[in-house]
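Q: what sequence does this backbone want?
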């Protein structure tokens, strides 16, 4: 069954720049050139939240892994961390000296990586938004930066036509991929962490193996590619392009699977849900669209294996002997037969408990940050009052 348009949201007053689903799929965040962040409820008839705080265009949004925080970056040079509820409280910090193009949480939710027109990539703690370090070898605007799934690597994409791979511990650039013929708009890690995909103004999408630093696949389109997102299975990639289309690429066979039309004007951003059954897109038409994947409806027994060579599409070619970057099974019928039911239940219970603890930490972190900001404001007001009182007393004395 082909992917189908499920819902579309209207509320932004300018081009949509970024979309992201919460972990539980109950909410969808979007950023826009209208300087607002919108939180859409996936439940019918539920009102959306409009968060106002940024002084200029919101370029990027992302939910924290637990879904209890949303980070946004803006042309006003700041990053905000929001609690996605009715109050829409947020903390703000000046992250860069120019537009913030990209924000991304590490998988443990403890760090954020940001990318900016000031040509740097920066890493921050989520708690207190403490600056940790900067990566600064790009020689033009940095459009996008992402942590690897295990948090050990960072990848960045720039208008200097390079994609750079960084070691988070040593803070050194370990490789530069220079195959793009234009600006690189977007980059992300494959769910396995062993590959990256990048989209560019040269109308291409390229997939590299980061272990051997070699190009695996290359897709040539007809229009600037603005954004991409890996399906959680790692078998598919969805892209958003200036020709108003969304394209779904089959990475196993190295071919174009679907071309979807929905937006009027450039499709600017796209993202799969964490489960992969939905994906969202945004466009210059001010609309946010939610699509049902459908191609993921495969029986539990079906196993998808890498193909030895990709079938060619007009203008598309596949390089490398096989796509060997962890793209394997879509689903497996059973867990290890040697593990008993009780062990599985214990592990599930432990995972749920840890998930709950992480959620509470997120909320506490944000609450502490908000209280600290309010305390600072109160202290500033008290100082101002004292100074005014002193001036009045001096005037009376004189």
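A:
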């Amino acid at each position: 069954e082909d992917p189908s348009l499920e819902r579309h949201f209207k509320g932004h007053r300018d081009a949509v720049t970024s979309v992201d689903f919460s972990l539980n799929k109950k909410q969808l965040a979007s950023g826009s050139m209208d300087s607002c962040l919108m939180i859409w409820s996936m439940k019918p008839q539920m009102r959306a939240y409009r968060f106002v705080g940024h002084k200029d265009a919101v370029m990027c949004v992302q939910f924290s892994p637990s879904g209890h925080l949303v980070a946004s970056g803006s042309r006003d040079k700041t990053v905000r961390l929001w609690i996605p509820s009715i109050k829409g409280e947020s903390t703000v910090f000046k992250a860069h000296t120019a537009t913030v193009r990209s924000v991304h949480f590490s998988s443990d939710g403890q760090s954020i990586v940001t990318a900016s027109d000031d040509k740097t990539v920066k890493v921050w703690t989520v708690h207190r938004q403490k600056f940790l370090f900067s990566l600064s070898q790009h020689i033009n605007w940095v459009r996008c930066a992402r942590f690897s799934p295990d948090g050990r690597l960072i990848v960045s994409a720039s208008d200097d036509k390079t994609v750079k791979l960084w070691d988070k511990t040593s803070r050194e650039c370990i490789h530069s991929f220079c195959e793009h013929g234009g600006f690189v708009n977007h980059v992300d890690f494959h769910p396995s962490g062993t590959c990256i995909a990048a989209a560019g103004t040269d109308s291409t999408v390229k997939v590299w193996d980061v272990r051997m630093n070699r190009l695996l696949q290359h897709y040539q389109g007809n229009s600037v590619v603005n954004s991409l997102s890996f399906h959680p299975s790692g078998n598919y990639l969805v892209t958003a392009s200036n020709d108003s289309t969304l394209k779904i690429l089959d990475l196993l066979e190295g071919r174009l699977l679907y071309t979807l039309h929905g937006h009027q004007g450039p499709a600017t951003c796209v993202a799969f849900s964490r489960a992969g059954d939905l994906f969202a897109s945004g466009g210059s038409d001010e609309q946010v669209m939610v699509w049902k994947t459908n191609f993921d409806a495969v029986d539990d027994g079906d196993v998808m294996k890498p193909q030895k060579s990709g079938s060619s599409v007009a203008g598309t070619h596949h390089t490398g002997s096989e796509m060997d970057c962890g793209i394997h099974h879509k689903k497996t019928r059973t867990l290890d037969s040697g593990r008993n039911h009780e062990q599985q239940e214990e592990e599930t219970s432990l995972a749920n408990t840890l998930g709950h603890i992480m959620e509470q930490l997120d909320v506490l972190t944000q609450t502490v940050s908000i209280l600290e900001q309010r305390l600072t404001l109160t202290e500033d007001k008290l100082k101002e009052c004292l100074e005014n009182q002193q001036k009045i007393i001096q005037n009376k004395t004189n």
